[in-house]
Amino acid sequence: MKYFFLLLTASLAPAQTNNECIDCHDDVNLTVYQESVHGDMECVECHALPPEHDVDSSLVTAAVNCADCHEDAQEEYEMSVHRFYRDDADLPGAGCTDCHGTHNIFSYDDKNSTIYKLNIEKTCGNCHGKPEVLERLGLRGMGPVGLYKSSVHARILHGNPEKDAPTCTNCHGYHSILHQTDDNCLYNKRHLSSTCGRCHEKEQEAYQQSIHWRAVNRGHMEAPTCNDCHGEHQIMAVTDSLSGAVHLNFATQTCKNCHSSPVMMKRFGLDPRRLESYERSYHGLAVLKGSPDAATCTSCHEVHAIKSGRDSTSSISAAHLQETCGQCHSDVSQSFTRIVVHPLDQKERNPVAWFFRTLYLWLIFIIIGGMLTHNIIILLHFIRERRRQRRSEGPLLQRFQPFEVYQHFFLILGFTVLALSGFALRFPEAAWVRLLLNLGMSETLRANLHRGAAVLMIIISLIQARYLLFTPRGKREMKSLLPTLRDVKDLWENIAFHLGLKNRKPEFDRFSYMEKAEYLALIWGIILMSLSGLILWFPEFFIYYLPVWSFETAEVIHYYEAWLATMAILAWHWFFVIFHPGVYPMNLTWTDGKISEREMKKEHRLEYKRMKRFK
C-alpha cells in the first residue's frame, strides 16, 4: 500500500517546466526558443529524462529523436547521401540539426530560418564550403556554393526574392538528397531536364524532342543535357559574354567541346572535322571575328530541339531548309539550300571546285615564286651597284674588324633561328609554322634548333664580352658605346633637323645615340634571355636554388623579351640598315666591315675629323 501511494504521488507530480530546465541549461536562449516553431512545446517532449534525473542532477539528457514527430521526413532522410555518410568517422554526413538548427528552428518561410530561401546557400555552405568536404567529393576551387553565389539564379533570388529563383534545395531536394548515380536523383542525367523544367517548361519540352535527349535515354551519359551547355552551379544569363549559352560561344566553345572530339564523334558515327570546316566558312569566320549577326550552330540546328538531319521535323531537313536559311537570307530557293555549309572531302563532293583550288595553289607557287625570284635578281643588281658606288666615293675605311663582321653574322643566324623556332612553339596553328612542319620540322628538331641557337648566342656573347672588357681595342669600343649627355643633345638636334626646325644635322662620333641604344639593348636582352632560357631548360637544377614562382616569371620574361627584341629589330635596326633612304637597298658595312670616306664624313663626322687629325 505504501509503494502504491508513492507511485501515485509520483505520477501526479507536475512535469519539469522549461524555466526549471533553463536554470541549469542557461546556454539555451529561452526567448529564441519560444519564438521558434517548437516554442509551445516543453523541453521534455523532445528531451526524454532518464529515470535518475532530477533538477539537481548533472546528467546529460537523452538524445533527441526528431522522427518521433517527423516520420515522413525521417523516412526520406534515411535514403539520402547525408544519412549514408552519417556514420563516417572521418567526415560524418549532415543530420537534422546541421540544417535546421537546434532550439532556433523556424518555419521555412521565416526570414530567420536557416532553410529560408535566401539563407539556404549559407546553410549548405557550412559543410559544402569546407576544403575537407570538397576534397571528399572530388571537387576543387571555391566549391558549388561559392560558384552558385555568382550565378544568374543567385542574382535574381537575392535581387527579387518574389521571383522564387532556384536555390540549392530546388535542384537537389530537401531530405531525400540522393547520389547522382541513383535513378531517382533529381540531378541524375536522366532527370535533370525535368528538374530544370520545373521553371523552364518550354525549354524542357523542346529538349526532350532532341537527339541529345534520345541519346541520354539510350544510356549514352556523355550526351549533353542542361548542365553540359549552361553549367551547373555558376549558371550565367544567356546574355552574359562568359556564358556557354551566349550566341557567339556555341561554335567556339560549347558545341565545340563535344563536336570536335574525334573519340566522341566516332562513337556516334559523326565526323569531327565538321566544326573545323564550319570555322573556314563565311559563317564561321564571321563568328570568330565577333559578328553578333553571324550564323552559329543554333541558328540552323535550333537551341534545345536539336534533331538529326534525317528527322523530317528537323530544322536542317530538306523540307525545312528554306525556312531555316530564310531567317537570314531573303528569296531563298531550293537550289540555294543545296549549298554545303560544312564542306568536307571536296575532291569527291565537288571535283570542279577541287580542280580550281589545286590550279590556284600551283599558280600561286609559280607566279609569286617567279615574282620573288625576279625581284631578288633586281635587288642583287642594286646591291652590286651600291658596292661599286661606295668604291667611287673615296677610299674605303675599315670601320669594323673582320672577326667582328663574322661575329655579327653568327649573331644574325642565331637570332633568326631562335625567333623562328621560339615563336613556332607558341603559335603552332600559324600558316608559316604548318609550312615548316610539312617541310619536316618536328617538335624534337625545333627544340634542338632552338637550344643549339641559344648556345651559339651565349658563346658569341661571351667572346664579345671578353673582347670589350679585356682587349685594348675592345675597351676603346666599350668606352665609345657608353651613353653621355651629348647623346641627349644629339637626339633633340636630330629630331629638330628632320622636323625642319634646324638647318644642320648633329655631328655623330664613332657611335650615334641610335647605335648606342641598340647595342646596349642587345646586351640587356641577351642577359635576360640567357638567364630565363637556362631556367626553363634546366628546371630540375634551378629548383634547388630558386623559389617556385621564378619559373613562371622566367617564362613570362623569356616570351615578352623575345617579342620586344624581334619588334626592335624590325622597327629600328632594319630601318637604319635597309629601309633608311640614305642607305637603301642596304648598308653594306655589315658584309665586310668597311665604309666609304663620304659615308664616314656624313654619318660619323667627329670620328672622321679625329682620324684626319691623327694621320
What fold name stands as the CATH topology of the domain at 390-614? Fumarate Reductase Cytochrome B subunit
Low-pLDDT regions: 1-13
Q: The biggest beta sheet, please? A: 2 strands, antiparallel
The value of Rg in angstroms is 40 Å
Query: At the first level of CATH, what is the class of the domain at 390-614?
Result: Mainly Alpha
Number of helices: 35
Strand order of the largest sheet: 1-2
CATH superfamily assignment of the domain at 390-614?
Answer: Transmembrane di-heme cytochromes, Chain C
Q: Can you walk me through this structure?
A:
This protein is an all-alpha fold. Among the domains are: 16-64, no CATH class; 390-614, Fumarate Reductase Cytochrome B subunit, CATH 1.20.950. The protein has 35 helices and two strands. The protein has helices at 2-12, 18-24, 30-35, 43-46, 71-77, 81-84, 96-100, 120-128, 131-136, 143-148, 152-159, 168-172, 192-197, 201-207, 211-217, 226-230, 249-259, 262-267, 273-280, 282-288, 297-301, 321-325, 346-349, 351-392, 402-426, 431-438, 443-470, 472-481, 485-498, 513-537, 539-542, 549-579, 589-592, 597-603, 605-614, and strands at residues 396-398, 594-596. Strands 1-2 form a two-stranded antiparallel sheet. The longest helix has 42 residues, at 351-392.
